[in-house]
Write a structure and sequence with these properties.
By secondary structure, the protein is α+β, with helices and mostly antiparallel strands. It folds into 4 domains: about 220 residues, Histidine kinase-like ATPase, C-terminal domain (Heat Shock Protein 90), CATH 3.30.565; about 130 residues, 2-Layer Sandwich (Ribosomal Protein S5, domain 2); about 90 residues, Rossmann fold, CATH 3.40.50; about 110 residues, Heat shock protein 90, C-terminal domain (Four Helix Bundle (Hemerythrin (Met), subunit A)). It is about 35% helix and about 20% strand. The protein starts with 5 loop residues before the first helix and ends with a helix. The structure holds adenosine-5'-diphosphate (ADP).
Length: about 625
């Protein structure tokens, strides 16, 4: 007996203890595996050509054996050899799951995460106490049997099987609740519900009842093989012939998400290139969405065969969250690599991109709350799209951006910002910080708000970088409330320059300048910056891995409120006790750092100085 890999054992345990509330999904998982296996063989046959296989030869068969309590799902697809049986069924196969280290600590509530792996095959154990897989790889001599009764382990033995393909035999658990899976009626309904669109026939021997008999006699029964599914893929159907729940089931099944999609987009395009597409905007991000492991792409079908699981060229990076299927006619004797470069794919990609944008705009206009939810999950990717293209995509993307407005206390677009801006306003003001709450408390905000101007909160690392590349919106430039000239009427004249210069000397290179002015109103002190790099950018850039050389430094200006008591005090000291002023300079510098959330180099010294001054 071989042991399952640790993480698989854990998932199996969860499966056996039925974390999925609807056990019935096991059937859709196994049928979808069978269909994938046929896809693989069909694709191979088209490439090799002279295999003698034709599309009509492929089928999936379900058989019920009530006496032995078994349900068997058979396909004549590509099959598995001994090694594949071990590798595919002995460990969780789905993409990236093995890299997902935390899998060992999974708890019941983590089923969301498991769902994203596509536990597929394992779901059979929700309804079975033993699973046998008899498989023969296409072109191979021998067949093998893989058998497991759950978490204890599995065995692989020689077996006999005439044709290539795979039989999955489920030995159903004892108990009332499992009996229904031995009923033709239930199986028929489950196929309709979850697997109707599978493009190969799903066959089952069904009982027909003939009631045309004499009174008191049992109805006559005959058996015949029926095709249970309609075989028309959803995307090939007319929109008005597809139920919302069908889209939803298809999405959940194909893209391993337990949540319904936020938006479904069904396209049928005739023109330079004919194609059909079924696209989904997920309502939550996959667990690995913001990691390098995440791969974008759409499934590409041609003539009903899956060519590429994730065709990257069909989606721009900034829409990498979109899942879905594109179906078009492409010559199949091309290699997969050449398929990706064909001109028709580029045409499709352009149309798909346009459509996604349009749908997002619709969502923004008509279903604001949904859009805001979308943006909270995927907005950073859109901002990144502006940044990583050096602003080339800005016209495309800038109207999809949302920022929290300090004045209006809600998320607004740039357009909405401008609609509420006054004509005297020189800039689009923004402030950066970790959270909206912390931004609202920034001293630098006061003056701008006092003038009646709104401030946009930027809380993502990428925000300021993206803004730099947008440059201006409706002829107004962006300006950080912590940046240089704010274009306000109030005199920004520096005053008490002698004191300011003295404090600057005391602080040395750490600041570009000390300024005493009316730029801040109620609070005594803060930083502003000069030049290209802001304090927020400094933090982000220095946090990047492989940051070679000396750390990046924003040019800090220590702003002191001319109206503050501390300023009056320092003016007095400047006349009478200059030497003690350097202590004050240090303390004010430390406090400005505190406001910005910058770690002071020598916190103990700072604390001692403050205590000295206040005791
Ligand atoms: P997934 O299908 O999401 O990859 P599964 O656990 O359902 O994960 O299946 C694991 C792997 O086992 C599949 O990727 C496939 O390689 C193989 N497999 C499962 N069922 C079959 C089948 N009926 N025929 C051939 N291979 C199969």
């Amino acid at each position: 007996m071989k042991q399952f890999k640790a993480e698989s054992k854990k998932v199996l345990d969860l499966m056996i203890n039925s974390i999925y509330t609807n056990k019935e999904i096991f059937l859709r998982e196994l049928l979808s595996n069978a269909s994938d296996a046929i896809d693989k063989l069909y694709y191979k046959s088209l490439q090799l050509q002279a295999t003698g296989l034709s599309r009509n030869d492929f089928k999936i068969t379900i058989s019920i054996d009530k006496q032995n309590r078994t349900l068997t799902i058979s396909d004549n697809g590509i099959g598995m050899n001994k090694e594949e049986l071990e590798n595919n069924l002995g460990i969780i196969a789905k993409s990236g799951s093995q890299d997902f280290k935390k899998v060992n600590d999974l708890k019941e509530e983590d089923i969301n995460i498991i769902g994203q792996f596509g536990v597929g095959f394992y779901s059979g154990f929700m309804v079975s106490d033993k699973v046998e897989v008899i498989s023969k790889a296409y072109g191979a001599e021998n067949a093998y049997l893989w058998v497991s009764s759950g978490a204890s382990g599995y065995e692989v033995k020689d077996a006999v099987k005439a044709q290539n393909g795979t039989d999955v035999v489920l030995h159903l658990k004892d108990g009332e609740e499992y009996n229904e899976f031995l009923e033709e009626y239930t199986i028929k309904n489950l196929v309709k519900k979850y697997s109707n669109y599978i493009s190969y026939p799903i066959l089952m021997e069904c009982t027909k009842y003939d009631y045309d008999v004499a009174d008191g006699e049992e109805p006559r029964t005959t058996k015949s093989v029926e095709t249970l599914n309609s075989m028309i893929p959803l995307w090939k159907k007319a929109k008005n012939q597809v139920e919302e729940s069908e889209y939803e089931n298809f999405y959940k099944d194909s893209f391993h998400d337990i949540n319904a999609p936020l938006k479904t987009i069904h396209m049928s395009v005739e023109g330079m290139v004919d194609f059909k597409a079924l696209l989904f905007i997920p309502s939550s991000a996959p667990y690995n969405y913001y990691t390098k492991e995440y791969e974008k792409g759409l499934k590409l079908y041609t003539n009903g065969v899956l060519i590429t699981e994730k065709c990257k060229d069909l989606l721009p990076d900034y829409y990498s969250f979109v899942k879905g299927v594109v179906d078009t006619e492409i010559e199949l004797n091309l290699s997969r690599e050449t398929v990706q470069q064909t001109k028709s794919l580029k045409t499709i990609a352009t149309a798909v991109e346009k459509k996604i944008k349009q749908e997002l705009e619709n969502l923004l206009t008509n279903e604001r709350e949904k859009y805001e939810n979308f943006f909270k999950v995927f907005g950073a990717g859109i901002k990144f799209g502006i940044y990583s293209s050096y602003g080339m995509n800005k016209n495309n993307l800038q109207d999809l951006l949302l920022y929290y407005s300090v004045k209006q206390d809600k998320y607004i677009t740039l357009k909405e910002y401008m609609q509420n801006a006054s004509s005297e306003q020189k800039y689009i003001y923004y402030a950066t910080g970790r959270t909206v709450e912390s931004i609202k408390l920034m001293p630098q905000l006061e003056k701008v708000l006092d003038n009646g101007f709104d401030v946009l909160c930027m809380t993502d690392d990428v925000d300021e970088f993206a803004i730099r590349f947008i440059g201006e919106y409706e002829q107004k430039q962006f300006r950080s409330v912590s940046g240089g000239d704010l274009g306000l009427d109030d005199n920004l004249l520096d005053c008490h320059t002698e004191l300011a210069n003295y404090l600057k000397e005391a602080l040395g290179d750490r600041v570009e300048k000390v300024r005493i002015s009316t730029r801040i109103k109620n609070h005594p002190v803060c930083f502003t910056t000069e030049g290209e790099i802001s304090l927020e950018m400094e933090k982000v850039l220095n946090a990047m891995p492989n940051q070679a050389g000396s750390p990046i430094k924003a040019k800090r200006i220590l702003e002191i409120n001319e109206q503050s008591k501390i300023c009056a005090k320092m003016l007095n000291l400047f006349e009478n006790d200059k030497d003690s002023l350097s202590e004050y300079a240090e303390v004010l510098y430390g406090l400005a750092e505190l406001i910005e959330g910058i770690q002071n180099d020598k916190p103990t010294e700072l604390v001692d100085k403050i205590c000295n001054l206040i005791s």
